[in-house]
Write the structure tokens for this entry.
Amino acid sequence: MAPRAASRLQSLGFEVYEYKAGKQDWLTAGLPTEGEKAAEPRAGGVARKSVPTCGTHDRLGEVVERVRAAGWDAAVVVDRQDVVLGILRRKELAKDPSVLVVEAMLAGPSTFRPNVPIAEMAGYMAEHKLESSPVTTADGTLIGLLYRSDAVAAAERAGS
């Protein structure tokens, strides 16, 4: 925050703190790591990056055509900054093609950070019967879509 803005907020009675980024910020951004656990597969490394996206005001029928043409069975609903707003899985994609995405989407889906160990993700997704989940940065920006089948396979390969 700019010093002038901080000063103004303080003059209005707000407590202002200077934020210093730390290790957790680095990890949740999916940036490279070192050490013993650096080679362990994580959600961000296993998630599929080229997931189809759409906006809330797109028509569902148009989105379904793009999703199928790309060979996918899901799309992530994002805003202009690629912040995840919802998801369209098989069930949502099967709805009336004339409706807007905002009416068909599953709003506020569970999202996960790229640094979550893949074995943990595989277990969570199996337990909660999630076929796919968006992987995002800490500020909600889409990194990719993690499929349970990919998470389970990666966890098995890693020996978890």
User: Anything to note?
Assistant: The beta strands are 53-54, 75-78, 84-88, 106-107, 132-136, 142-147. DSSP finds eight helices and six strands in the chain. Residues 30-157 form a domain with the CBS-domain fold (CATH 3.10.580.10). The chain has one domain: 30-157.
